[in-house]
Structures are given as structure tokens and as C-alpha cells.
Amino acid sequence: MEYLLLLVGFVLLIKGADFFVDGSSDIAKLLKIPSVVIGLTIVALGTSAPEAAVSITAGFAGNNDMALGNVIGSNIFNVAVVAGVCAVIMPYVVDEIIFKRDLPICIGITALLAIFMYDGQIALWEAITLLVLFAGYIFMTVIHAMKHRTQEKTEEENTRKPIISVLFIIGGLAAVIFGGQLVVDNASKIAVSLGMSQRLVALTIVAIGTSLPELVTSIVAAKKGDSGLAMGNVVGSNIFNILFILGSSATLHPIAVASDAMIDVIVCFAIAVFAFIAVAISKKKLNRIAGVILLLAYVAYTLFIILR
């Protein structure tokens, strides 16, 4: 029964995020916001909604391993698999604002998270610091969006009425919240029944399940040649995961950090740095070779955490 409810939870998370993204993107396009900014904010927030639902729910329950493992596992999956698969399908040029601003921010806050984790917990003041940084990041991104509004017509892109888009947003969020509760509860039960640690379940099953919206959204964007949305979604989601989701979870309940969790965050940092270097040496392009290396790195990491 737990497996069925876990599956139902994942379906609600993915479809709820899909509705949220559709509704939010429609509203953003009506406001003539560029696709790269939509990727970094609206789509990133929407596709990270499953991670938020799972980790914040786990934070309320004091389930530290699930909250932290889900975020780190999702961030590794996003860069290694989501960005990697998109590069293999269709190598793409990374938008300049993402390369110069957002990807370095993503690397920097991952390093900051490692520092916060070093003493064995993410304390309240550290959680508040993450939330303040998140507010600053959103403010900076919105200011940039207002200065670079596109003048393109959007009548053909938006077929839904604004009220329908709003209903999509509300219904999507409701599905995500309920689905997140189902995933946390049933993943925990499965972990206990199989003798698995909750951190292993969070780093693998839950992380992959909650990252499916990022994967689907980015693949569709990559096939359409919209690299701004594809890479912006990955980077924006990772920033959102660390700053908002972990910040919120640790505010609700200080997060205790297991010693081997430091290895996971170091892997997360290393993969992000590799992606940045790969883009830098390929003239701001993520090519197929880099994509294959990222995918192989994820396979190796997954085998490592299963065997450890």
C-alpha cells in the first residue's frame, strides 16, 4: 500500500508542478518577461515545488535526513542528469546572465551550505541567513527582468485567460502540497521496512522523484532550442532548493547533519564547478561530451551512496 501511495504522491507532485508552471508562465509572458528570467524564477520555483513540499513537510516532522538529503540529492540530479541529458539531446549555449551571475551564485551558496553543515547542524541563524539571501536573489532577478522586458507579442503563446492561469497556479500548489505529504510519509515507511536509512531514500528515490519536473521541463525546452529556459530552470531550481527550501526547513526545526552528508554536499559542489568549467572552455556551450561525463558522474555517485 505504501508503494501505491508513494506513486500517487509523485504523480500529484509532478502534475501539480506542471499546472503551476503553465499558469505561472502564462502570467509571466503576459507581463513580457524574458524566457531566461522565467526559467530562473517562475519555472524554477514551480519545478522545485515538490522538493519544497517534501523538505518543508519533513522539517515540520523533525525528519532531518529527509529534508537535507532531498535537497542535496535533487541538486546533484539537476546538474548531473537534467543538464547532462539536455546536453546529450541537443548541445546548447548557456545564456550569458546565467553563466556570469547565476551559475557562480549557485556554486557560492553550495560552498556556503557546506560551511554551515561543517559543525554538524544548520542552526536557526544560518537558516535565516539563507532566507535573506533568497529574498535578495529574487529582488535582483526581478529588477533585471523589469529592465529587460521583451517587446515580442505573446498573443499566440497565451491561449488561456488570466483567471484560468490563476486557477492552474492554485490547483497546482494544492496538488504539490498534498503529494509532498504522501511522499514523505510513505517513503519513510518504505525505508524502515527495507532497513534503508532515510538519508539514502532521500538522496535517491525521493530526490529523483521530486526532480522529475525539472527533467521533463528542461528536456522539452532543450528540444525547442530554448536554452534560456532549460539551463535557467536547473540553476534557478538549485538556488531555490538551498536558499528557500533548506532555509525554511531549518527555520522550522534545526537540521542535524550526519558526518557522511558532508561528502554529498562536496559532490554537489564539485559537479556544479565542473559544469561551470565545461561551459567556460566550450565558449559558453554545454556540449555532448560534458553531458556524458555528468551522467557518468551521477551513476558513479549513486553506486557509491548505495554501497557505503
Model description:
The chain has 308 residues and is an all-alpha fold. The chain has eleven helices and four strands. It has helices at residues 2-30, 35-47, 49-60, 64-89, 96-117, 124-147, 162-194, 198-223, 227-252, 261-281, 288-307; strands spanning 92-93, 121-122, 255-256, 285-286. The strands form two sheets. Strands 1-4 form a two-stranded antiparallel ribbon. A two-stranded antiparallel ribbon has the order 2-3. Helix 4 runs antiparallel to helix 11 and helix 5 (96-117) runs antiparallel to helix 10. The longest helix is centred in the middle third of the chain and has 33 residues, at 162-194. The protein is globular, with a radius of gyration of 18 Å. 52% of the residues are buried. The model is unreliable at 151-156 (pLDDT under 50).
**Which descriptor suits the 3D outline?**
globular
Q: What class, by secondary structure content?
A: mainly alpha
Uncertain ranges: 151-156
Radius of gyration (CA) equals 18 Å
Kindly report the average pLDDT value: 81
Question: Count of helices?
Answer: 11
> Could you give the order of strands across the largest sheet?
1-4
- Total strands: 4
Helix content: over 70%
How much of the polypeptide forms β-strand, as a percent range?
under 5%
Order of helices and strands: HHHHEHEHHHHEHEH
Largest sheet: 2 strands, antiparallel
Distance between the termini: 29 Å
Question: How is the secondary structure organized here?
Answer:
Layout: H1 2-30, H2 35-47, H3 49-60, H4 64-89, E1 92-93, H5 96-117, E2 121-122, H6 124-147, H7 162-194, H8 198-223, H9 227-252, E3 255-256, H10 261-281, E4 285-286, H11 288-307
Antiparallel strand pairs: 1-4, 2-3
